[in-house]
Amino acid sequence: MKIHNTLTNKEEEFIPLEEGKVKMYVCGPTVYNFMHIGNARPIIIFDTVRRYFEYKGYEVNYVSNFTDVDDKIIKRANEEGVTAVEISEKYIEEAKKDMDGLNVLPATKNPKATEEIEGMIKMIEELIKRGHAYAKNGSVYFKTRSFDGYGKLSNKNIDDLEAGARIAVNDEKEDPLDFVLWKPKKEGEPFWLSPWGEGRPGWHIECSVMSKKYLGEQIDIHAGGEDLIFPHHENEIAQSEAANGKDFARYWMHNGYLRINNEKMSKSLGNFITIRDVSKEYDLGVLRFFMLGAHYRGPINFSHELMEAAKTGLERIINAVSNLDFLLENAKDKELSETEKEVYAKALAYKADFESAMEADFNTADAVSAVFNLVKLANSEISADSSKELVKEVRKLIVLLSDVLGVKVVKEKEILDEEIEALIKERTESRKAKNFARADEIREILISKGIVLEDTREGVKWKRI
Fold first, then answer.
1. What is the pTM assigned to this prediction?
2. 317-336 pLDDT, tens per residue?
3. Strand-pair category, 258-260 with 263-264
4. Who's near 432: CB < 8 A, 6+ residues apart?
């Protein structure tokens, strides 16, 4: 299995720290509002990475945090006249609803920053002790030039870095490049007691502490959006390796940016779209399927037209599975014919294509193509005359590989009430008796009840309207 490692800018063979196990940390959202579709991309992508590892038999310890103390949370709380805790708790619950809608597996652990303050204080104390941090007027700063490897993830030369938009100029700092680990309290802000006075942690320290607590000093994979490479992940490396004296993460994975109609998403442009907004028009399974249609490291463009295309593609898979379910009800138990053996061999070849795509740095676009090839095979080569074994095995493959992608393709079985079942049965009998007037009358009755019938070569199918 090959993974593109941001740290080396190369595709590398994945070798876990511990055989059969994967320790994976993914930076989660800052919870001050509904998550936007840019947040959805890493959530979906790295959930899919996790699912594939589990499909291959690995035990995955998957940790993703909630940043529940932050300037944006405090600002939102002050605007609404409530506490920061009320804001963060509200939007953690909303984030979980969105994740459930996106069919994201529950993390092994979703730590919250506010519950890990003690660990942050201890790591900051260790950094001061080792000469990598200093306290000044209630603040604590990381001494960036004390860490020789600074810039190795983002490929930035520390001598070329200058104070600017991303690194706030501050007279207290010994060096403009130093970044905050602890900040003193301000009026109206939440705070905690520390050796440096009342205050709260900086943003970067939380992930270093939570990763260490729940996964250990060294982890296999650290992941997040491309926008986190610098300074957030660069600072995490500096803190963790300076405090622990060990390499932090072996593989760094980052997804590319998302654009809206070929423009950057921003509130000022009026194209800021939340996951909740999308859910009003589409099932969130369509959003997930859309996100998997491009390689995770490249940019992706969101538009209504592309979402419609994703919806159509997903429905094609769902309909194929539904058709196989229908065939399965009446398929005969018989040995595979020579032709069916060839069909099944093709199906297994598409499964191999799927795995090859996923093992080539999780190329979900090609993996989806392999699923479509299975669907095409099912639609063209399987009929009412096919053996039950062939129908069952091809269906199983489509559902299995879709599940690895986190894409739901099995319709929940709908239960018709007795009256509707009786009408469908009567219509079938009327057609056999050539009483077409009654058969047409029953069709109209069913339409009035929201049931549409479709006569196929395999038999009568129905759907709700």
1. 0.89
2. 999 999 999 999 889 999 99
3. antiparallel
4. none
